[in-house]
Write the structure tokens for this entry.
Amino acid sequence: MGERLCAQGMARDSLNRLTQLDYEGMKKKLGLKAAMRPGPSGDPSAPDAANMEEAKVRHYALPDPLVANDGSVVKSKEVWQEIRRSQIANDLENEMFGALPEDLPTVDWQVVHEKDTVIANFPVTEKLLIGKVDNSSYPQTDVHIQLLVGVPSGAVDAVPVVMEFGFLKWPFGSPPAEPNSYFISPYEPRWKQQLLSKGWGYAVLVPSSIQPDHGAGLRTGIIGLANKGKSREPGQWGVLRAWAWGASSAMDYFESDAAVDAARIGIEGTSRYGKAALVTMAFDDRFSLGFLGSSGAGGASLLRRNFGEQVENLASSSEYHWFCGNFLKYASELSVDDLPVDAHSLLALCAPRPVFISVGSPFIEGQWVDAKGMFLAGVHASPVYGLLEKEGLETSEFPEMGKALTGGEVAFRQHAGGHSTGPNWSTWIAWASRYWK
Ligand code: GCU
């Protein structure tokens, strides 16, 4: 036991060391003239605690998604679609998430296991798949993407599926340990059961099988494979974009599976996986609905609001890998006010497709994720939905906890539970039913 703990500790130390090396290397490539500013602490009792008081939120000005780079106001769907949308997408790629490499290898999806099972009385056929990424250009790195797909057994028509960025017990065996009860709503059945009761299916995509979740791993995974084991240049993609690419690749698979209706695929995730779900929605318009759980900074919450997690935290060595290297500039010689985009820009790219912003109770989840910042990003993305003749968020007034704002294509609900989408599933499904008849 002692030896194992010691080995784990050593492995962690070496990951941290490799992460630091990569981080320092990126700072050098950027030639930053100023030191990195440290982010505030997530511990409310720390002397440098992040702001969690509404009264202390500063004034800030957001870039207007409907003003083009030449200063002209975007007044038509066509100008949005042909000009402004790609300007925003470029800014998000160049400054935050990185662009997809040009020659991405192909993925060969194979079913490795199939079984009939039962979840809460609903018979379901589960398939376990591996998406094997062609590594002939760099055989030193293997990328085997793990995907579980469950559809109601015997369904006649192709079914809608919600795919979660999540975890799996691999391969099939005893079911994964139930997560800590803190993550489970005592008030709602689990998500798979709820989806099956609608006649819908579920899928779980494993992010770590696409790209490791640390700076030390940037020379492996799909990022390392596409880069032939070299460290990244400042504009190259970060982990969130890589996970989103994995989701797009799973979408390619869905398009080939007759049991699944590829026109009705939703993407869901919580926390860093909620950020990945939003990036997926923003950059791949084949996804029909989004369920963005507590995605916080780097996801749906406005970065310019000094509340909860800040750009300086995201650009630190423990989170910078989620982004492209250029993003580091905004915690050094530049500031968040220099960013040409913010969270509402990312939501605007999802328009006109419906997205649901989900968050937990401040008393249980805490306020690091900045619920109001996510709500306001929805408010400020809404004019783009309006231009596309959709409703966006139905109000600009922050709702009380539990109230579902599901009247428009940008939905919002703060549930009474913790850091999880759990207590919002039934609300999400009721909302999604409008679109997936
Ligand atoms: C940290 C991080 C968040 C992130 C979260 C998670 O709290 O600061 O941005 O969402 O981890 O993914 O668990």
